[in-house]
Amino acid sequence: MGKIIAIANQKGGVGKTTTTINLAASLAAEGKRTLIIDADPQANATSGYGVDPKSMPSSIYECLVDDYPMDGSQVATCCEGLDLVGSRIDLAGAEIELINKPSRENVLKRALAPLAGKYDFILIDCSPSLGLITVNALTAADSVVIPVQAEYFALEGITKLLNTIRIIKSRLNPALEIEGFLLTMYDARLRLANQIYEELKGHFGEMVFDTVIPRNIRLSEAPRPPLSALRPGLARRDIPHRPRPRAHCQEQLTVNQTKKNNPPPPLSNHHHVPSQTSRSRSRTRLAHRDGRHSGP
Length: 296
Known about the structure:
By secondary structure, the protein is of the alpha/beta class. The chain is about 40% helix and about 15% strand.
């Protein structure tokens, strides 16, 4: 029986998709059969693995709204042992279409049931909201990982998320547990980041992961071309390099050498002092302008 983990936080930009992509790649690298469910209409987890949403036979939208079987909607990714059920922008309207469905909070749970024995881990990348799709993800999950950005605004939304988890646990999914809080975009040089970490540790204790995710340009570079941060070298080699033409480089060297051999002359320290005649002419022009000049 595979474990289902939701990566959720209603605040956007805290690293949910990046966490999902790289955690799934890490599990697959360890030999675990892993499946990603992209439950975000932005479909960043889908494009992050180089999957074109238009080329997929079906997406999470068809599985939720049209009862399309989840087993058969998976597509292979660039990582061995890692599959993906992708998303499309159509998922943005799924919440309205699910309103009249019976037991609408359990639609995703029922769809995932046939896949539970085929994968060791199923990761659900949630959208930055507490809507019906996120409620479905939390109802279907065994546990939830909460990425928290090292900023105060990210802390403010945790209370609402915890209230939602408490309601779901009491009414829909009693087995739901908080896997832990993952601090992301952490910069140890900033006093604010250290204060956020201390506040999380002081309030949630052992529920905060010891591992923190630092700010790292590799994580930003990994989606283009689509690769996980486990293989950053491949991403750098795949980016086409455009060297400057040799003639251009030689021309630039010639210009620089010419400037070095012929420096500009120094500025003179002598200031121009107007002559007596120039001062007289200036006074005459001013007098004509003011109408005070008399005589020839």
